Amino acid sequence: xxxxxxxxxxxxxxxxxxxxxxxxxxxxxxxxxxxxxxxxxxxxxxxxxxxxxxxxxxxxxxxxxxxxxxxxxxxxxxxxxxxxxxxxxxxxxxxxxxxxxxxxxxxxxxxxxxxxxxxxxxxxxxxxxxxxxxxxxxxxxxxxxxxxxxxxxxxxxxxxxxxxxxxxxxxxxxxxxxxxxxxxxxxxxxxxxxxxxxxxxxxxxxxxxxxxxxxxxxxxxxxxxxxxxxxxxxxxxxxx
Length: 240
What we know:
globular, Rossmann fold, single chain, alpha/beta
């Protein structure tokens, strides 16, 4: 590959897919990684010619992640989008539920970021995707915990990688129209949308724009930050 290279986990759908297309449009050569090979194949047809390569992998499989990240000649940006969501009342969350959520949403980010940082040079960027849920929520405590962990991990990585001039930031989306949120019952989805700015969920492209900003070399003086992209819902006191 020539030119700046970005590696995006969870790149086959939703926010990940939108991020792959945005970064490719911005001139990055993008490696889109995901467990869903069929959706990755479909993505190739939508991307600029030659702008996207794909890789089928599970973010919890360190050897696979390490091999994929080591494949390109350089790595300028890592975007960790891969994640899972499972609505469940606190009393009903099992140990297995909690561990599965942490494995993908937090440990998966740690694995990819650690492998990427080992070969990144000054000026590189790591962007994690946390969630507005990191500040709290009901009926998905394990998801809240995993995303709060991503925020803390992002800050810790930023502090340690700062001397190497590798910036680490996070984007925290609010309610967004993705295949994951569309698994909600239609009436529940409609109620959630009503609480959002303008009465509708964010488009994945809205989140991808924030990710692209933090993945840009122009933001070299920004690190350790979490950018909420939620229409102001995280402000509180707005009847939201």
